[in-house]
Amino acid sequence: MPSSQVAVLAGLGSWLPPRVVGNEEIAQRLDTSDEWIRSRTGIAERRVVDPGTSTVDLAVEAGRRALTSAGETEADAVVLATSTADQLCPASAPQVATKLGLNGVAAFDVNAVCSGFVYGLATGAGLIAAGVARRVLVIGADAFTSLVDPEDRGTVPIFGDGAGAVLLRAGDPDELGALGPFDLHSEGELAELLWVEAGGAKNRRSDDPRDHYLVMQGQTVFRHACARMAESARAVVGAAGWAVGDIDRFIGHQANIRILQTCAKQLGLAEDVMYSNIEKVGNTSAASIPIALADAAKEGALQPGHRVVMGAFGAGLTWGSTLLRWPDVIPG
Ligand code: UT7
Question: How many CA atoms lie within 13 A of 218 on its CB side?
Fold first, then answer.
């Protein structure tokens, strides 16, 4: 395979579990209100998995739609971005691949939490550039509400469940849909700002059940999210030889509408360049960007040739960006 092969976005799909949880339902059991949640986050409702539905189920639905959107039944590899794998061990991607009928293909998880999809795209693009695979299914899927303490008003209103996926194929750097460059970063010293302390190898079982749930220092995370996403968008745009003003659509991680607004201000972008679907889905972690891509494409907010930047930020801390000129894809 020629070394100039890059990853081209050839298919797109998303899937949300059917159960809608509106702000009022949360306000009935926690000390919060629809007004507070809307004004502080931009969220009106989110989707939540029913018991028995898992990340693998969400990922399979989104993956199937991305394959159909690309007109493909095969892929050579499955990269699943998630921090809510069905089991602590093994990874969930092999189960997803099998359920999609992709028997025997390379399949593994990437865990960069809410930045996972952008990390997953970089991994998929790397497999293609290295000649390891010609078609890579990259899925972002999280049943993130499984990590949320049902008693914590600081996190319950924010998070939702869902999945989104793209099929990447080997192609030419000049094609619409060609991905890259990438800009990826992390800062492990700040892991405690947003983490689940117990359940892993360091603290397998804690006597305090709250240690098994997500703890978030919201305000500090908020400030890092705005600054890092803006910084990374500038870096990736510069590396591509674009100017910030060339961006037609910014598809950012949907963590909080105010983060997207602040990020737009820091970049000097008009607010309508920032796409948001957070009102309907909340923060779906690794699924957030591909669900937003699919919704934006369905609404006509992404048109072939648009210069699109994807920007992510999440626990770890991790953050990163990539870009493309939007291809002619019909999302499933
Ligand atoms: O996805 C990965 C990254 N995650 C994020 O990027 C999340 C980033 N953080 C945020 O989005 C915001 O910090 C939150 C939405 C989590 C919180 O919004 P905030 O504007 O930063 O609120 P705050 O934590 O500063 O709290 C303001 C007030 C406090 O009351 P006092 O001290 O002013 O009396 C809180 O106790 O709001 C109170 N509060 C609530 N009130 C009603 C906190 N949560 C709630 C709530 N309902 N759910």
Answer: 14
